[in-house]
Amino acid sequence: MNGGKLSINRVCAAGAAFLGLLSAAVVTAAFLFTQNPAIVWLGLLFILLVFACAALFVVFLRRKLVLFSDGLCETIDNMLNGVSARPQVWEEENLFYKINHRLARLYEVMRENRESVAKERADLQELISDISHQVKTPIANLQMVNATLLEQPLTEEKRQEFLQAANGQLEKLDFLMQAMIKTSRLETGVISLDRKVLPIYDTLAAALGGILLNAEKKNIHVSVECPSDILLAHDKKWTGEALFNILDNSVKYTPVGGTVRVSVQSWELYVKIDITDSGKGIAENRQGMIFKRFYREEEVHDVEGIGIGLYLAREIITMQGGYIKVTSAVGSGSTFSVFLPREL
Q1: Count of other CB atoms within 10 angstroms of residue 124
Q2: What is the reported pTM?
Q3: What is the 3-state secondary structure (H, E, C) of the chain?
Q4: C-alpha distance from residue 135 to each of 41, 140, 172, 279, 300 (Å)
């Protein structure tokens, strides 16, 4: 007989037959040695009790195996079908419980990974859609300028105007691509922030250096109140990027002759950086939307920008355990409060 085809029932039957023959041989040998019928009856009674206990144990074990196999098959089917129902587990601490408990943990890990992959795929599709929408306008403008330069006779002055317009669109595309690269590298973990205890004064000074020229062009007065001895655990490069984005946003939406004020306060657990402008302000129902990628209010579409600066700033601050709070009212300017934890 092929051993691979043996079933549990056949093995149990063969074992019972072997034990029966062995018991009969033992009882017969005991009778031959003692010649006492009472010993034979006691031996037979003991053998019957043993067989009865063995039969009950086999029935119980078979039932447990059937229940376990049914639960195991159901769990595997759920895993294959993507059903989010939690697998059944046993309460008692036995072998079946241990196997099923670990299978349940595997099921949860697989489900979480599947949901994570689905979310990443949705985020990727959204990102591709956003990029497609953002590059469509500058590309169309470049195609129009290029067609005009190739097909229409133009004076040297007009040709220079069209070339400058094309250069502006190219700069917008380059800025968009650089911003998207920074965002994607941060989101995917390609870049990890290196937090070190450094003076926040130097980081803020570097961020301010990027907006002073534009502020001067609009005659915007920039004031700073930042003690030079405040130490903060932060990534200097990326924190400077976040602060620059907020400052640049304030300068863009502050009218000519306005003000931008920066103040830094050291608290017990956090360092608070307030950036206050005298711009047009933000309506309360829009304050939660301004941190969305590519979000821009309808009435400011004539102002240069693509709507990714505040989104990138929030990502950088959040990755360092901090957060950004906005206080604003229409016509009264805005205050962006950046909170960063002092310790690593």
Answers
A1: 11
A2: 0.58
A3: CCHHHCCHHHHHHHHHHHHHHHHHHHHHHHHHHHCCHHHHHHHHHHHHHHHHHHHHHHHHHHHHHHHHHHHHHHHHHHHHHCCCCCCCCCCCCCHHHHHHHHHHHHHHHHHHHHHHHHHHHHHHHHHHHHHHHHHHHHHHHHHHHHHHHHHCCCCHHHHHHHHHHHHHHHHHHHHHHHHHHHHHHHHCCCCCCCCEEEEHHHHHHHHHHCCHHHHHHCCCEEEEECCCCCEEEECHHHHHHHHHHHHHHHHHCCCCCCEEEEEEEECCCEEEEEEEECCCCCCHHHCCCCCCCCCCCHHHCCCCCCCCHHHHHHHHHHHCCCEEEEEECCCCCEEEEEEEECCC
A4: 97, 9, 9, 28, 19
Q: How does pLDDT run along the chain (344 residues), one tens digit per residue? A: 454 455 666 766 777 677 777 777 776 776 677 766 776 677 777 777 777 887 788 788 778 777 777 777 776 777 677 665 554 544 555 666 677 677 777 777 877 887 877 876 776 676 667 667 667 777 888 888 888 888 888 888 888 888 888 887 887 788 777 777 777 776 666 667 888 999 999 999 999 998 998 899 999 999 999 998 899 999 998 999 899 999 998 998 899 999 999 999 999 899 999 999 998 888 888 888 888 876 666 555 455 556 678 888 998 999 899 999 999 988 889 999 999 998 76
Rounded distance, CA 296 to CA 177, Å?
18
Nearest to 87 by CA among 69, 98, 67, 101: 101
Structure tokens belonging to residue 127: 């990102």
Beta bridge partners of 341: 270
The two structure tokens encoding residue 72:
């195991």
